[in-house]
Design a protein that fits this description.
With 196 residues, this protein is α/β, with parallel strands linked by helices. It is built from eight helices and seven strands; from the N terminus they run H-H-H-E-H-E-H-E-E-E-H-E-H-E-H.
Length: 196
């Protein structure tokens, strides 16, 4: 399928950090995503106390929403500002510690222990560092990943999930010749080839 001029597009980590610094975060939503609410039963599949992963989490309000339901939340985000804003906007006390396996990375954990946010590149994570997950809420990660990195991203995600996990993925559909992204256009055929 033709993804227009997007195939070669690369957004650097510096550009993402700048978006947070400038408050250019139109992708952040103040309310729980209606699709997560609609498909919550699919994610949970009758289970409680799940480990749920938020790739490129920003300061997603759904993290606290699901943690309040008794789930354990792990997120990864390049912007320390976003992570700190998440905790302050929800009045959640937290502690901060280095991640020994990843140079320069930090982990911010709520003092209640049920929300752990890693501040580093997602590609620095592995199941040996963060464990495996029962569920994934990918609301804006795959569509934010540079098209050239999609295979690497999908391989990592597949490695991070348990066999019986649920993966909720939100994409956007539009003519990729008319918008350079992000969010990037990811055709359904590519999703199938990436995730099987």
């Amino acid at each position: 399928s033709d993804v227009g001029s997007q195939k070669e597009r690369v957004v650097t980590e510096e550009e993402w950090l700048q978006k947070w610094e400038m408050g250019n975060i139109g992708f952040h939503k103040e309310q729980e995503h209606p699709l997560l609410q609609k498909y919550l039963d699919v994610l949970l599949n009758g289970r409680s106390g799940l480990r749920i992963f938020f790739p490129l989490c920003g300061k997603a309000v759904e993290m606290k929403w699901l943690a309040d339901m008794g789930h354990s939340i792990v997120g990864v985000e390049i912007s320390e500002q976003a992570v700190k804003e998440f905790f302050s906007e929800h009045s959640l006390p937290y502690c901060e510690e280095p991640v020994p396996e990843i140079s320069g990375a930090k982990m911010f954990q709520s003092t209640s222990g049920n929300i752990s946010l890693f501040c580093c590149s997602i590609y620095d994570l592995s199941s040996s560092i963060v464990g495996k997950f029962d569920g994934v809420w990918d609301r804006g990660a795959l569509v934010a990943v540079n098209p050239c990195d999609r295979q690497r991203y999908a391989s990592l995600m597949i490695n991070l999930v348990e066999k019986n996990s649920s993966y909720l993925l939100v994409t956007v559909s539009y003519d990729p010749n008319k918008h350079k992204g992000p969010p990037f256009y990811v055709p359904e055929s590519e999703i199938k080839s990436l995730f099987g």
